[in-house]
Design brief:
By secondary structure, this protein is α/β, with parallel strands linked by helices. It has ten helices and nine strands. The strands form two sheets. Strands 2, 3, 4, 7, 8 and 9 form a six-stranded parallel beta sheet that branches. Helix 7 links the parallel strand 5 and strand 6.
Length: about 260
């Protein structure tokens, strides 16, 4: 398996630490050099965890090819009470999407999950709990969480999801171990809508129009009211500007189910 950026940085840091320790004991350099590289290492680890698109701990796919004017729409954190309204718009506009679902929501909204699947949208794993604590679990607990979410989807659809998007886009070595063990394709995004923060529909729609380009994976959520308000107009704008809205499978050329 190819080494991650995390492993490469760690190997290089250990080499530098050894060098500075040698210089400290034999050349009497200041201890602050050692403290400095330790702080720098910790800051890099923290940044690598937060900045998902660095692919620091694991490799994720954040976009498709920019050679063809295609995009994929993805919705996180569902299903929710607004998911059916989202599905109605997608059906009327005849466009596919991918839904990254929370396992604990699946169990209470099974009919909506079935409708997502039956209308040929893709279902991906977004963890079972989607809690802040997910990020701080060991790999065994992360594995159990992801397996529980996958089983919830499989019980309804009969298919095991292969796409995973980490909650909050946060990764670390323990999440990477679990994901690699389970064989997931990790999905990121190239356009983040911030529809959970932008409450003004005009502002959100303007942001999406400015940011969208060929090959993009667009991150939306299916529970904010503002998303529901702008979705149809955004889809129609994409069509008018000759974008093909395609399934995530087609955009990245990966299988969504085992």
């Amino acid at each position: 398996m190819d080494k991650s950026k995390f492993h490469l940085i760690t190997y290089n840091w250990l080499f530098l630490l050894f060098v500075f320790l040698f210089l400290y004991f034999w050349q009497n350099i200041s201890v602050w050099y050692i403290i400095g590289i330790m702080i720098a290492y910790l800051l890099i680890l923290a940044a690598g965890s937060i900045f998902f698109r660095w692919n620091f701990y694991l490799n994720a796919l954040h976009r498709g090819s920019g050679r063809i004017k295609q995009v994929s729409l993805t919705f996180d954190d569902g299903p929710s009470s607004k998911t059916e309204a989202i599905l109605n718009i997608l059906k009327e506009e005849k466009v596919p999407a991918a839904f990254f679902l929370k396992g604990e929501n699946i169990t209470s909204l099974r009919k909506i999950v079935r409708r997502i699947y039956e209308e040929n949208h893709l279902l991906g794993n977004h963890s079972f709990t989607h809690s802040v604590g997910f990020t701080f679990q060991n790999s065994r607990k992360v594995t159990n969480d992801l397996q529980n979410a996958a089983k919830a989807i499989e019980r309804i659809t009969g298919k095991k999801p292969l796409f995973f998007r980490p909650p909050y886009g946060v990764t670390n070595p323990e999440i990477a171990k679990a994901v690699n063990r389970l064989g997931y394709t990790v999905i990121g995004w190239s356009v983040r809508s911030f529809d959970t923060k932008y409450h003004n529909p005009r502002r959100l729609l303007s942001r999406l129009k400015q940011k969208t380009k060929a090959g993009d994976i667009v991150l939306l959520h299916d529970y904010p009211e503002v998303t529901l308000k702008i979705l149809r107009e955004y889809i129609q704008w994409l069509k008018k500007n000759d974008f093909q809205i395609v399934s995530l499978e087609k955009l990245i050329n990966k299988k969504a189910y085992a």
